[in-house]
Amino acid sequence: MAEGMRKTAAPLAGRNCDDPKIDYKDTAYLAKFVTNQAQIVSRKRTGFCSQCQRELKQAIKRARHMGLMPFVQ
Amino acid sequence: MGYTYEGMFLLDNQVVRADWNRAKGAIVETLAKHGAKVLTARRWDERKLAYSIKGKNRGTYLLAYFDLGGDGVNEMRRDFDLDENVLRYLMLRVDAVPAGEVEKAAEESAEGFSVPPPPPEEAQSFERLAFGDLADRPIQEPTRHAPEPEEAPADAPAEPAVPETAGVEES
Predict the structure, then answer these.
(1) Cβ–Cβ of B50/A64 closer than 8 Å?
(2) B53 and A71: CB-CB below 8 Å?
(3) Which of B121, B47, B130, B27 minimizes the C-alpha distance to A67?
(4) A&B contacts, CB < 8 Å
(5) pTM over 0.80, yes/no
(6) What is the pLDDT of residues B79-127, one digit of tens each?
(7) Under 8 Å between Cβ of B30 and B73
């Protein structure tokens, strides 16, 4: 690795952008993309494209609204 | 121009325990009142909530799919906002009813199928969790601005006020 390059964290899970939309009801899947304190993890760690990350964000926020996932832990 | 919608409703377990079909019927009725054509409606799950909502720690989710025109959505939302049995709701536009949803809903409405009653609340209300027995105490009116009760008449004879007054007179 060249000097000055940062070592990036490995993506959490591979996801094909053609997969069906991320569902807010699938809390087991969404739980992989939040930290111990229930924060949504960044694109750098999820390895998602921007569209997928936006879907993920929307799904987690919907799950939070319905009491399926915590806002903070 | 109508669309298909997915509606998720979080219902109070007390109402579900009393009569599931009536709780479901109330939601379906509200949807139908505003011109929705209900395609499916079923019990999705009964869960412990991630955080307490209106003092409840558990709730039952109802998942419904319905066709709806653009009119009447705001009135429908207001009805659900006012309904005390609906803790939360979420309505989203979907392309179509997912595969297998109709079968699951039919399974529930089939004869001989009984919805399992929700378990009792592990912990009671949020107030009780936070304040313990203090939650049961009656709320007292604040008395900050109330006049102090005068106790002077009862205490006056016992107090030795004489030396002070005597000192003032001397100077």
Answers:
(1) yes
(2) no
(3) B47
(4) 29
(5) no
(6) 999 999 999 999 999 999 988 888 888 888 776 677 777 777 655 554 5
(7) no
